[in-house]
Design a protein that fits this description.
The chain is α/β, with parallel strands linked by helices. It has 16 helices and twelve strands. The chain has two domains: 21-215, Glycogen Phosphorylase B (Rossmann fold), CATH 3.40.50.2000; 240-478, Rossmann fold (3-Layer(aba) Sandwich), CATH 3.40.50. It starts with 52 loop residues before the first helix and ends with a helix. Residues 1-48, 359-382, 406-479 are annotated as: Disordered.
Length: 479
């Protein structure tokens, strides 16, 4: 989930290339004002004038896509016949879609008479529906996070196509092949005929796409990121949600540490539940974390194939007291629903993908002195070294700070001494692979003797030990 690729070409754009005011659209003079109804948006048509409306209505009957929220039907007739179409490409993951919500809101406000079609993976249809911004979803198919080779579009020529996917010829050309009357995209030397703003590497993902639209004269607010609260009831109202998974190992904090945090919060009287993603081994990882934290099996919330269905996940996050998560989809869901969160970052800086900087959200990151916002590989297989620098104590403290900020009080038993005492009580329940490697001098022998004495130690399945800060939730960690 959650990392927008820049097509195969990487970051592009030449300073000053195409950045003039000549290609901006006067949307009001074009006729697509806030009150425009069906058939509005003349500014998106060519200079020959408006299309024949009867022909447009006939063309709309050939549209392909799936109804948002109905993932059972691969193809259905287009809805809203007679309306011009704005096609948005964002064929990535959950977090990627949610960071595009401010841009989608801007398009919806600016083009109320258009049918907004989102080209994205079919599994995101419920997410698109939850935003209340998308009319239908056009399924895309691509391995991993590659740009789709083509789009199964058989409807009329889109009045407008918007590239919210990346910055390079693959995604540009994919949309150009549909012949839209207008294409909004960042400038790239590989597609010099597309005039747009210059790409910036060091820019938050929400701001990036709002800036693109603003360059073309569409007002967009990157802080307008909320989605409607789900109607469904939470399966665990008031719980703290721990999501230990991520789609790449580089952004996956060790399960032993998630377990240590969950166990400490449980000791303090908080209800804690654990969720799983759809990736291989995610359910096993979630169950391991819950067991090592001393939580009952019922505290693990998963779906039939391991991944919790989006409607239940959204209801759970919306009703949670706090979400503890790495840099992955549920972190962005918490942001979109206004739920307090503690988000752990490693290979990529929070200033590019993090939550808003408010007391409701804590982003933890140890850049290690590097000025780069992308010091690691976000899609690497092993936990990033910066992620491993985050300790269990930090996460517990950040969680308590968030909870207390929401309540407007100070936790009476907050503090390292009390945390250490609680950790001592549950010692041996949640162990970290760091017990086997990378332990500070003078502690390895002590921990080894404890393990020998107890003969009990749970290990996260399929994980190798090591890394800075890889320690058990013991007096040493929490001092």
């Amino acid at each position: 989930m959650d990392r927008a690729i820049r097509d195969e070409w990487g970051p592009g754009g030449v300073a000053g290339h195409g950045v003039t005011g000549s290609d901006r659209v006067d949307w009001d003079r074009a006729g697509d004002t806030a009150g425009a109804g069906v058939g509005g948006g003349g500014g998106l048509r060519d200079e020959a004038g408006l299309r024949d409306e009867d022909q447009a209505r006939a063309d709309m009957g050939n549209g392909a896509g799936i109804e948002v929220g109905d993932v059972e039907k691969p193809l259905v007739p287009a809805v809203g016949r007679g309306r011009p179409v704005v096609l948005v490409l964002r064929a990535l993951g959950l977090g990627d879609l949610l960071t595009a919500v401010p841009a989608l809101k801007a398009l919806r406000r600016r083009l109320p008479g258009h049918e907004l079609v989102l080209a994205a993976p079919e599994r995101l249809a419920p997410v698109a529906a939850a935003t209340a911004l998308v009319d239908r979803l056009l399924p895309t198919y691509a391995a991993g996070r590659k740009v789709p080779a083509d789009l199964a579009w058989t409807g009329p020529t889109p009045d407008l196509a918007v590239d919210l996917h990346g910055n390079g010829p693959p995604s540009h050309l994919l949309l150009q092949r549909l012949g839209p009357r207008r294409l909004l995209a960042y400038a790239h030397p590989g597609t010099p005929d597309i005039r747009g703003p210059v790409w910036r590497e060091d820019e938050h993902e929400r701001k990036r796409w709002c800036r693109l639209l603003s360059w073309y004269g569409i007002d967009a607010d990157p802080d307008d990121l909320g989605i409607p609260a789900p109607a469904a009831a939470s399966p665990a109202p008031g719980a703290i949600v721990v999501h230990p998974g991520a789609d790449a190992g580089a952004r996956r904090w060790p399960g032993e540490r998630f377990a240590a945090v969950a166990g400490e919060l449980r000791r303090r009287g908080h209800e804690v539940v654990v969720t799983a993603g759809a990736g291989a081994g995610e359910e096993a990882r979630a169950r391991y974390v819950a067991a090592a934290a001393g939580l009952p099996p019922s505290a693990v919330l998963v779906g039939g194939d391991g991944d919790l269905p989006f409607d239940r996940l959204a209801a759970l996050v919306a009703g949670a007291r706090c979400v503890i998560v790495g840099d992955t989809g549920p972190a962005h869901l918490a942001t979109a629903l206004g739920t307090p969160s503690v988000v752990l970052f490693g290979p990529v800086a929070p200033r590019l993908w993090g939550p808003p900087t408010t007391p409701r959200h804590h982003a933890l990151w140890h850049p290690g002195g590097t000025p780069s916002p992308r010091p690691g590989d976000a899609h690497g297989h092993l936990p990033d070294e910066r992620l491993l620098c985050i300790t269990t104590e930090e996460v517990v403290k950040a969680t308590l700070d968030v909870l207390n900020s929401e309540r407007g009080v100070t936790e009476p038993d907050g503090g390292a001494a009390d945390l250490s005492r609680g950790a001592e009580e549950q010692e041996g329940t949640a162990r970290n692979p760091g017990d086997r490697a990378g332990t500070p001098e003078g502690r390895a022998g002590e921990k080894g003797s404890r393990r020998a004495e107890t003969g009990r130690r749970e290990t996260e399945p399929g994980v190798q030990a090591g890394g800075p800060g890889g320690r058990a939730m013991t007096r040493e960690v929490l001092r």
